[in-house]
Amino acid sequence: MSGEAVGPLERGLAVLHAMAANPSPRMRRSDLTAATGLLRSPVDRIVATLQRLGYVRADGRDVLLTPRVMELGNAYLASCGLVDALEPYVVELADELDESVSLAVPDRDGARLITQAVRRRALYLAFHIGDLLPAERSAAGVVLASGWEEAQFDAWRALRRADLLDAGFPAVPARDEAPAEDESERCLRSRAAVARRAGWALDEEWIEPGLLAVAAPVRDPAGRILAAVSVLTHTSRHTAADFPGHVMPRLRAAVGRMEAALHRAGGPTDPPAPTARGLSPRPAARPAPTAQDLRESKGELGMEFLESLARGLAVLSAFGSAGGGLTISAAAAATGLSRATARRALLTLHHLGYADSRGSTCRLLPRVLDLGHARLSCLTLTDISRPHLAELAALLGESASVAVLDEDDIRYLARAATSRVLRIDITSGTRLPAGPTSMGRVLLAALPPGELAARIARTDRRPLTPYTLTAPRRLAAAVAAAARDGYALVDQELQEGLRSLAVPLRDRDGRVVAALNVAVHAGRSTPRETVERVLPALRDTASRIEDELATAFAYVPLVVE
After folding, report:
1. Most buried residue, 178, 216, 317, 338, by CB count within 10 Å?
2. pTM to 2 decimal places
3. pLDDT at residue 495, rounded to an integer
């Protein structure tokens, strides 16, 4: 099989994996050659191809992963079927217990988190979707190991020998010293045996002091353990003695509902359970690049574009629209590639451990989440916006910002300033009244009519400049115009000489979650000229930010920070 593997796809996935595993988000191309053992020339071509596909970006001499690379992990999460089927019950259990709840699946020598509902407190769960936890150090891992055959213990033992300090598990603190090999195995076997008899496992500060977790297995219709549901808390809230008794009745009931949903569906890869309250339907995955798209990229980049790498990643991405996996014919149809090309890409993914086969159907494995998804699952709206703001400010030579509505004000999340003589001293966290600002008006325009009327009624009537709209009727008309036009232009209402133009930023469900604006000096152009020059670039930037928001937050709640 390895003889039929696609070399550029192998090397490209090695580069992505190296970037995702690197402690720093930034890498030089020379760092990538050292991490992968590849020569500089293929690394340069791989980076150029990944940049063209939107999976990495260059910042000076550094290369960084972009949120779009998460679509590879999203392809696994969509195709496995477990997240869509069981996430509603994870959220419901977290609501019932007021504790963080996670769902993990087996992945080589550990437990891979694929969904969670987190309760944010001063002390809260710091794991992310895609994180891998050691089997012997987590309740979820012990529960999964309770169903292992001897061959799986053998595979676990071989992997542990190569990583005695848990360096391959960046989500957990590394061990201070390596345990004896037989000690680790005795520990895992003992804990798995207890979990097998009890039907659940207790993590009594195994991963970190203060962290408690109780986990129970979720079985498929044939009785095999598919996943583990964990409820997590802190010792400031519960003790190891009382936590299982507090959790287990509701946890067992939740597992029963999960397994009933899987039985009704016939398995984890069939249509998901009905959406629970508070969870909106997930949008369709972004279509995989077609053969025509790849030919166009090849035509523009020439020899720098590795078409076979791009084809392989297109096949991987195509799993996002294929619940249950892909046959060779389905992969070819989804991407417009030939059957032979699709087959070689699937064989390569299988050879590298990112996929396996059941009959004629190939399905992705959780290891795909190592390709940047676990690394980027902690991104916030601010993180995603910043590089786009910098590009927009550089393109227009004007300052650009992102803000959210915070009570009757807007609060700045990120800003890219220019080096002009006339500058406005605004930083992240700055608050300004919503009414006389362009970002405030597009944010107000998204409110329900009753809430909007209440906000306008309590707006401060004192003018900030001679141009400030203070009459409620005029302000309401300006907000209505922003809703109608899809943008707001505010001319010198906040400060004389300052004009700004803003558009909304929407999440994957179409809800306005923030606003993007560009501020200019009013003396350099007319309002109409400002709109003609700025609005196209502003809308294009908003579209790119929204595209990344949809990818990054397809399987995690949008974090507005």
Report:
1. 216
2. 0.91
3. 92
3-state secondary structure 349-397: HHHCCCEEEECCEEEECHHHHHCCHHHHCCCCHHHHHHHHHHHHHHHHC
Q: What's the rounded Cα separation, in Å, for the pair 486 and 503?
A: 6
Evaluate the CA torsion angle 441, 445, 449, 450 in order and state its sign.
negative
Structure tokens at 176: 């201070």
> For 357-383, what is each residue's pLDDT tens digit?
988 999 999 999 999 998 999 899 999
**Beta-ladder partners of 411:** 404, 431
Q: Burial-class residue 64 by CB neighbours within 10 Å (0-12, 13-18, 19+).
A: middle
N-terminal to C-terminal alpha carbon distance within the chain: 46
Interval 324-363: pLDDT, tens:
899 999 999 999 999 999 999 999 999 999 999 988 999 9
Burial of 488 (0-12, 13-18, 19+ CB in 10 A): buried
Nearest Cα to Cα of residue 57 among 21, 19, 13: 19
Q: What are phi and psi of 410, to 5 degrees?
A: -105, 145
Q: How many CA atoms lie within 13 A of 42 on its CB side?
A: 17
Q: Is 561 helix (H, G, I), strand (E, B) or coil?
A: coil
Virtual torsion, Cα 294, 297, 302, 306, nearest 10 deg: -50
| pLDDT of amino acid 424 | 60
Nearest CA-CA partner of 50 in 5, 77, 19: 19
H/E run at residue 137: none
**pLDDT tens digits for range 138-158:** 999 999 999 999 999 999 999
Phi, psi of 500 (to 5 degrees): -140, 150
On the question of pLDDT at 28 being above 70, the answer is yes
DSSP state of 302: G
- What tens digit of pLDDT does each residue of 84-104 get? 999 999 999 999 999 999 999
Number of Cβ within a 10 Å radius of residue 232: 26
The DSSP line for 505-559 is: EE-TTS-EEEEEEEEEEGGGS-HHHHHHHHHHHHHHHHHHHHHHHHHHTSSS---
Q: Identify whether the C-beta of residue 342 lies closer than 8 Å to the C-beta of residue 331.
A: yes
